[in-house]
Design a protein that fits this description.
- This protein has 92 residues and is of the alpha+beta class.
- It is 53% helix and 16% strand.
- Helix 1 (3-17) runs parallel beside helix 2.
- It is flat and about 45 Å long.
- The protein starts with a helix and ends with a helix.
């Protein structure tokens, strides 16, 4: 197992220690690289076989940053006003 595989394993354990799940799914064309849920339960990283492991690791770290900010600034409280604004934006 390479050092990059070990790092992905470590990041997965770190995510689980935060009470979240980390999963990897195939990324279709013109799809974003990753996402995290505002309720703080999961992170999904979208990959393709052509993506490097470094890109995948950076995507996980990036989404963990969003999730950690949410945990520390909002104390994991779901912001319904923000969610409603996102829904309205998507519908427009």
């Amino acid at each position: 197992m390479s050092i990059r595989d070990e790092e992905l394993k470590r990041l997965k354990k770190y995510t689980e220690a935060l009470g979240m799940t980390l999963s990897f799914k195939y990324r279709p064309k013109k799809h974003h690289m990753a996402e995290w849920d505002m309720d703080g339960t999961f992170i999904i990283v979208y990959t393709r076989p052509s993506d490097s492991k470094i890109e995948t690791i950076l995507s996980v770290i990036h989404e963990l940053g969003h999730a950690l900010d949410h945990i520390h600034t909002k104390n994991r409280v779901f912001d319904n006003k923000f969610n409603d604004a996102l829904i309205e934006f998507d519908e427009a």
